[in-house]
Design brief:
By secondary structure, the chain is an alpha/beta fold. The chain has helices spanning 11-23, 63-73, 87-92, 95-115, 152-171, 193-202, 222-235, 252-263, 288-294, 302-315, 317-324, 328-336, and strands spanning 2-6, 28-33, 53-57, 77-80, 119-125, 175-180, 183-184, 207-210, 216-218, 220-221, 240-244, 249-251, 270-273. The strands form 4 sheets. Strands 3-2-1-4-5-6-11 form a 7-stranded parallel beta sheet, sandwiched between helices. Strands 7-10 form a two-stranded parallel ribbon. The protein has a two-stranded parallel sheet with strand order 8-13. α4 (95-115) packs parallel to α5. Bound molecules: nicotinamide-adenine-dinucleotide and 2'deoxy-thymidine-5'-diphospho-alpha-D-glucose.
Length: 340
């Protein structure tokens, strides 16, 4: 079994590679990644010497390189994590999101059609459903909730999902899609809420909370997401969408206060700043389908997962300090410098 994992030098893709190599030592895993600002070669250090692992630096939009790799590796399965993923960056500059997230997905699927494949899996997001109001805690996203996006990022992911389903219907490509809620855990790039707050708190820097801090996200430990994708590619039905989430809703401000408490830092570091444009209020996944069909359930409780995550960032300072000392400084100044 050969699996091409795109975007494997990123947060979830990297964790997925660790999970797969450990659980299926006989599988060959080929990571295809462009190594954008969000990709970190060092994330994959621990698997580089594994003879069943190969890393290839390619852009998923580059048809020639992608086709050559498919011709050489003849993958059975492709799992597409590669994407531009940060909502704030998509608000600043949508174009690269449209290119990578939509055209890149089409290029990969064209290669799958050309060379044949047992499964193409698209790693999507709950953001394609838009948001839910705070005063309706009874509402959840199901797989039949209409697509209704808010940001250029979520619109690009929704466009890709529609293309994936169209390739299934039109060309009979054996596809599946997972739409997961917010992930947290080791190796997450420190532009995202949890690692950004951990890194800033450890450096006694202000903790920038957008708007009122009352927006709600549904947090899932990254390993649980990886296990869900593993189940879907092996046992999930072709042509289907599976929502993935663990019923773990938290407001942003509660998350930030918890990080202060765990790290022994004062809440006076919290600084309310201008809200994100078009900021989604609440995400909440109904995971009934994946539970009933595939028996998936989240295994890590948030109280344990956040402690493990904080410990990881404490013990792996080299990994994130190298990131925040580089180009990230320019990004941080642009995003937060004058934000009032
Ligand atoms: P990430 O930003 O940490 O990593 C993205 C990876 O994709 C990087 O390694 C980057 O180098 C690579 N990449 C970007 N453009 C590329 C291109 N053109 N060609 C090849 N590689 C390219 O992302 P993540 O948070 O790990 O998210 C992975 C996937 O999961 C994305 O598709 C995202 O939409 C989805 N998702 C993320 C979350 C979350 O909470 N992080 C939740 C649900 C779904
Ligand atoms: O729901 C899944 C999505 O989760 C994924 O598809 C995206 O790729 C991923 O980035 C994430 O999107 P969010 O926008 O929810 O994540 P982010 O970490 O950027 O922000 C989480 C919440 O925290 C959001 O309400 C905005 C807020 N926030 C974020 C940052 C970076 C702050 O208040 N301050 C910040 O500095």
């Amino acid at each position: 079994m050969t699996i091409i994992v795109t975007g494997g030098a990123g947060f979830i893709g990297g964790n997925f590679i660790f999970h797969m190599l450990k659980k299926y030592p006989e599988y060959r895993i080929v990571c295809l990644d462009k190594l954008t600002y969000a990709g970190n070669f060092s994330t994959l250090n621990s698997v580089m010497d594994n003879p069943n692992f190969r890393f290839v630096k390619i852009d998923i939009c580059e048809r020639t390189g992608v086709f050559a790799l498919f011709k050489e590796e003849k993958p059975d399965i492709v799992v597409n994590f590669a994407a531009e993923t940060h909502v704030d960056r998509s608000i600043e500059d949508p174009e690269v999101f449209l290119r990578t997230n939509i055209l890149g997905t089409a290029t990969l699927m064209d290669a799958c059609r050309h060379f044949g494949i047992k499964r193409y899996h698209q790693v999507s997001t709950d953001e394609v459903y838009g948001d839910l109001p705070l005063d309706r805690p009874d509402l959840f996203f199901t797989e039949t909730t209409p697509i209704h996006t808010s940001s250029p990022y979520s619109s690009s992911k929704a466009s890709a999902d529609l293309l994936v389903l169209a390739y299934h219907r039109t060309y009979g490509l054996p596809v599946s899609i997972s739409r997961c809620s917010n992930n947290y855990g080791p190796y997450q790039f420190p532009e995202k809420l949890i690692p950004l707050m951990i890194a800033n708190a450890l450096n006694d820097k202000p903790l920038p909370v957008y708007g009122t801090g009352k927006n709600v996200r549904d947090w899932l430990y990254v390993e649980d997401h990886c296990k869900a994708i593993d189940l879907i590619i092996h046992k999930g039905r072709v042509g289907e969408v599976y929502n993935v989430g663990g019923h773990n809703e938290m407001t942003n401000i509660d998350i930030v206060k918890l990080i202060c408490k765990e790290l022994g830092r004062p809440e006076s570091l919290i600084s309310y700043v201008a809200d994100r444009k078009g900021h989604d209020m609440r995400y909440a996944i109904d995971p009934t389908k994946i539970h009933n069909e595939l028996g998936w359930l989240p295994e890590t409780k948030f109280a344990d997962g956040i402690k493990k995550t904080i410990q990881w960032y404490l013990h792996n300072r080299d990994w994130w300090e190298e990131i925040i000392s580089g180009e990230y400084k320019v990004y941080y100044q642009r995003m937060y410098g004058d934000r009032k």
